[in-house]
Design brief:
This protein is α/β, with parallel strands linked by helices and 339 residues long. Strand 7, helix 11 and strand 8 form a beta-alpha-beta unit. The protein starts with 6 loop residues before the first helix and ends with a helix.
Length: 339
């Protein structure tokens, strides 16, 4: 096996915003999670629980600003924020199957099983699940698999069918991950599967952090907020996470299954969402509205922003996909109002 190590990766130390606990899950993953107790109402053993699930290559810290407002708006609620497997401080499973089948190990259903397993480990019977982007797909999977465990769903920047998402399908997976990064490593004698999966984007591209800031962790609506830390973390995630979770998102198609959903849903979306666009929202809201009518439940959808997405699909001058970064307080207020 060929080993490629980046000197920068070896010397960098992240500055985590939220303190993590760690627990081994029956699913095989070791989960890191933030556990924020209620700020009112005692120790909160019987308090309602809100679980926040992050997006692709992010981690629990991406919810830190939103969580601060949520605790003010919902002082009696316990807030649990995991790093999903292979992200943040959570490990990939120890059996090593992720090296050979990252698409299986990072399927949205597998990440949802981790979340349910974490609730079991924490002694939580049912909770509200809120997810951003990939996290919203994980939350939806959990609600479909175990509806009795999910009291409410909050889906931020979501879709019911991610199979042909252009930025993920054509650009990130084909051009970047399995194009440029794979070619760079194979040119150095690294076998893509399984050997490359334990390496990182920095191992494939020494300038990966700068690339992340320019093309991946890019937030044009809030250009003054620092993004270097986000880029550093993403550049050091295993390639198994990048490839497996991206493919897991692209395998997501739950529109037909939404007719059986009985969980109350709140969906939040912004007009310049480059990933899950207006057509996705029409299909999603139609399916969720029919499910709510059938079950006699509730469905709320809110649009952020006014200006439409540019013809080239790039966010420019209004709120977009990363609402928990661009508008954390308003997202928190809207989530709290729905509880």
């Amino acid at each position: 096996r060929v080993s490629v190590t980046s000197d920068v990766s070896a010397t960098w130390s992240p500055s985590w915003r939220l303190r993590r606990h760690r627990v081994a899950l029956p699913t095989g993953a070791t989960a890191a999670y933030a556990d924020l107790p209620p700020i009112a109402g005692g120790q909160g053993r019987d308090a309602p629980v809100l679980v926040l699930l992050h997006g692709l290559t992010n981690d629990a810290d991406s919810w830190a600003d939103t969580a601060a407002t949520l605790r003010r708006e919902l002082p009696g609620t316990r807030v649990v924020i995991p790093d999903l497997r292979g992200h943040g401080q959570s490990d990939v499973p120890s059996d090593g199957n992720w090296r050979h089948a990252p698409d299986v190990e990072f399927a949205m259903s597998q990440l949802a099983a981790d979340v349910t397993s974490l609730l079991d480990t924490l002694g939580v019977g049912a909770a509200t699940l809120a997810g951003h982007s990939m996290g919203s797909l994980v939350a939806l999977e959990a609600a479909l698999a175990a509806p009795d465990r999910v009291e409410h769903l909050v889906l931020v920047s979501t879709t019911g069918d991610a199979r042909q998402t252009p930025f993920l399908h054509d650009w990130l997976r084909a051009d970047v991950i399995e194009g440029r990064w794979r070619s760079a490593l194979e040119a150095r004698g690294v076998t893509w599967l399984p050997d490359a999966m334990g390496l990182t984007p920095l191992d494939a591209d020494p300038d990966a952090v700068s690339w992340m800031q320019s093309f991946w962790n890019l937030y044009p609506f809030t250009p003054d907020r620092p993004t270097r830390e986000l880029a550093e973390r993403a550049a050091r995630l295993p390639l198994a996470t990048w490839l497996g979770a991206t493919q897991g998102i692209l395998d997501h198609n739950r529109l037909a299954d939404l007719r059986s959903l009985r969980t109350p849903v709140c969906a939040l979306w912004a007009t310049q969402d480059s990933f899950f666009r207006e057509g996705d929202q029409r299909a999603l809201t139609g399916a969720l509205s029919r499910a709510a009518d059938t079950a006699g439940g509730t469905f709320v959808w809110k649009q952020y922003g006014r200006r439409p997405l540019a013809p080239d699909g790039m966010q420019t001058d209004d709120l977009g996909h990363n609402l928990t970064w661009d508008a954390p307080e308003q997202v928190a207020i809207d989530m709290a109002a729905y509880q």
